[in-house]
Amino acid sequence: MLERLKEFASEFFVTGDPLIYGADVAIGITMITIVTVLTYFKKWGWLWRNWLTTVDHKKIGIMYIIASIIMLFRGGVDALMMRLQLAMPNMDFLHPEHYNQVFTTHGTIMILFMAMPFMFGLFNVIVPLQIGARDVAFPFLNALSFWLFFLGAMLFNLSFVIGGSPDAGWLSYPPLSELSHSPGVGQNFYIWGIQISGIGSLATGINFLVTIIKMRAPGMRWMKMPMFTWSVFSTCIIILFAFPILTVTLALLFLDRFAGAHFFTLDLGGNPMMYINLIWMWGHPEVYIVVLPAFGVFSEIVSTFSRKKLFGYKSMVFAMLIISFLSFFTWAHHFFTMGSGADVNAFFAVTTMLIAIPTGVKIFNWLFTMYRGRIRMATPMMWTLAFIPCFIVGGMTGVLLSVAPADFQFHNSYFLIAHFHQVLIGGVVFGYFAGLYYWWPKMFGFQLEEKLGKWAFWTWNIGFYVCFMPQYAVGLMGMTRRLSTYGWDTGWWELNFVSTIGAFLMGVGFLFQVAQIADGIRKYKTLKASGDPWDGRTLEWSIPSPAPEYNFAVTPRGDDIDEWWEEKERRAKGIYPPEQPLEPIHMPKNSSIPFIMSVFWFVAGFGFVFGWLWMAILGLAGVGICMIARSFSYDTDYYIPVDEIKRTEASLRGSV
Amino acid sequence: MAQAAAKHGENHAHGHDHGHHDPQEMKILGFWFFLISDVILFSVLFATFIVLRDNSAGGPILSELIKMPGVIAETFILLTSSFTSGLAVLAMNQGKVKQLINWLIVTAVLGASFIALEVYEFVEMVHEGFSYTTSAASGAFFTLVGTHGLHVSLGLIWMIGLMFQLKKRGITDVTRGKINVISLYWHFLDVVWIFLLSIVYLMGVM
Description:
- The structure holds two protein chains of two kinds.
- By secondary structure, chain A is mostly helical.
- Chain A has helices at residues 2-12, 18-40, 44-52, 57-86, 96-130, 139-158, 186-214, 227-259, 272-306, 313-326, 342-354, 356-370, 379-402, 404-410, 414-444, 450-476, 493-522, 563-572, 593-610, 613-632, 642-655; strands at 585-588, 637-640.
- Chains A and B meet through helix 7, helix 8 and helix 20 of A and helix 1, helix 2 and helix 6 of B.
């Protein structure tokens, strides 16, 4: 009995690596600390009522962002481990299998569990406020989306200490990801972690499409909508069309592994290229999914901090819609070397290059917005300014890569690695940081001090160039990606060493940000933000910070593109809007079902990962019961009485 | 458009929702978006099937296994169920709860017979050596047709749940919304079946 238990444990838990034991201890201590603190301060009820069961879009947004920053830490540690391994030739820090796991989880986590939730967090916090709505279209579904993402991400992360991490690359190409080549449970963790959170992403896409179409403030016609909301709209269109492809692709891979199908196997008629086509039909649009909202953030910030209307509003909108359309016609540029023939390659090369045009339009519009503006150099604006040269270089190397014949040379080299980190860090991460700094006071009601933020900005930026510029060079010198070590004779070590220094500088930048936030939380009482700390232009700045749970005491109007700015101008001239009577506000009730249902999904996923069918069925049955319970519950909303609104407004506005 | 209504800030007949939005209307729009995502899901399965359908790896070939009479019966049953679900909605619009539930029962029975026939067809194929793991072609076939069958089965469970709600609450704004949504879903499954019939079965035997 004991022997069997031991045998089980040695397979179930990841053993044999001191780094993992260290992580086990760290995870254990963190969990014990959390439980102890919550129990000691009697906060379990508070946590359950205020956060775990909330349907308030602002709180859901904050939870997304917190989860995303934790994942940024994890993905970042992966990155630093890789850079350490590559700092010198013949390093013996990570053995090759471990290295494969680290680069796989780094990529997966950064795109799916860092960029996506950060983006959804900003959607949630800002979109309803910008369009003058009291909530999203489906608040219950919104909470469900968050918990599906969160528990999917946790399932994926569990692979690190239980069962073993996936190691077939962030897109899990077959045949590497097939049972014959990856017999362990790592790939199953990959499939189910992403599948569960992917369902949440699709639901969020639908939710925000309906929110934006149906819940805009009176007077806010399409061409009056704030730019960030436009970017969310175009992103959600891409999500709607791209995520079902991912769902099916992962399901088919799972059927191969679990049920013995032969979609992508090498034997019995399977076709691995089918998978690679499908995954990139989702994967390439995914790149634009994460970058478009960042463009929206930049548009808001450039206009606010230049105190000017955004230049070329309409061209910005069209550029975004064109990008979302074209994003579906570029996927084959990920495998120009696969032998699809010159015609196919030419088509995808041209569509890929075409995307540079609307993107260029946007960049010029931002520059023209700044031209003759009264620019203020606060941290959100600094990140925006840093983005522009970074994205231009990244975009141009992208065009180089899109030249199909040249790509035969660059393919899978460090040149490519440098390119996509340049657009993803320069575009996405810088964008979301800018958004976080910009909307921080709106989310939390206090402002962060800028000093540490500027330190963070400079270390991040300098670190970025030090890290990735050498990678272009070393890529042209022949170093390929996914390489766990190299010899002295290659001549790559100096550049790699410099690159590693840059990566650690970015890590220091992250620490500065953590310090900045910790410092802000410590002194938040003295840093109280007004409703409109940046002299903003759109509706979210017209209400107190943080926004009350019902957002707007009376429904605002949205007749102008920069409605709040125009309103301020009118008020300066002495024209005040007519006083509107308060009415009771209709709000959705909190619900425990999203959390419980997602836990059942987690249970089902865990069962499938280990092939324990009883557990998978138990989990799925729980999911079904939760759905039925929701369908049968009719008592899902309540009203906030006028007296309470008056009290809330008085206390929020009085103290500001 | 909703904007026009919202412009005047007026409340709809459906009561105080989010101030000026009609929740049922939003649910139907949301459901349309869900259906779009389901269209994509099926398109991917169709594409996979079309790419892999000839990869039988020396095993049985689908076109030799298709028995058209069964397929035509399935088609007839499913189309009829779509029609009866339409009659259910008509009954609902006239405010006749009992008739509505009865038509839903007819629809569900037809749906269940469709599933039964499909399962029988699958079992026959497996007996002839065309099982899920035989080849890429067999896997693609069972996954594509089976996903449709799974959709129908889930729709059945959903429909039965709604019948209980109708019994308890009658026709209200909320139950009306739910019935409208499931009828959309049911018609959608019908449309998918037409594609299955054409691409999998008719093109298979031709």
